[in-house]
Amino acid sequence: MEITSPTVVGLTWTLKDTLGDALDELTEPVEFLVGGDDLLPSIEAALQGHEAGAQLDLHLEPEDAFGDFDERLIFLVPRERLPEGIEEGMLLEASSLPPESVQGAPADALLAITEIYPEHVVLDANHPLAGIALRLHLKVEHVRAASEEEIQQRSAGTGFFRLKPASDHGHLH
What we know:
The protein is mainly β. It folds into 2 domains: 7-66 and 131-153, Chitinase A, domain 3 (Roll), CATH 3.10.50; 71-124, Thrombin, subunit H, CATH 2.40.10. It has helices at residues 41-47, 148-153, and strands at 7-17, 22-34, 55-60, 74-78, 91-93, 110-116, 120-124, 134-145. The strands form 2 sheets. It has a 4-stranded antiparallel beta sheet, with helices on one face. The termini are far apart. Residues 166-173 have low confidence and may be disordered.
């Protein structure tokens, strides 16, 4: 079966930066909806017309991946405005923060805590892979028709490098 929109593909891959450092590896196939929100448009375009067994090597410039790094998405927030127990590397939802402290960040953004100082905290709303060119070696393990539900949800349940907030069990307030 050929990959068209909408179909569901099972992919394995190795994602590296241009220095060859591995950023992500899928050794067991994960399913993604082609023609929805699961994959980057540049990856979807490359997959079109391929079948199970195909192996692709993609080089994605930042504009084809997660965009360029935007200095305007770095915020300094007074320490007392943030919850106790935060650590560098944690992700906070923009909606859980005082709006005036992260003005300019998308409402649904996840902000990474990059540095913690006694008086303030540095938050970054850029995607961790923003500004990075990526090399993706992927293999199409299988292709199947998408279900009505998947087409409506625009997803087979897994996004390409979607971020999750620090706590899936009850959000930080």
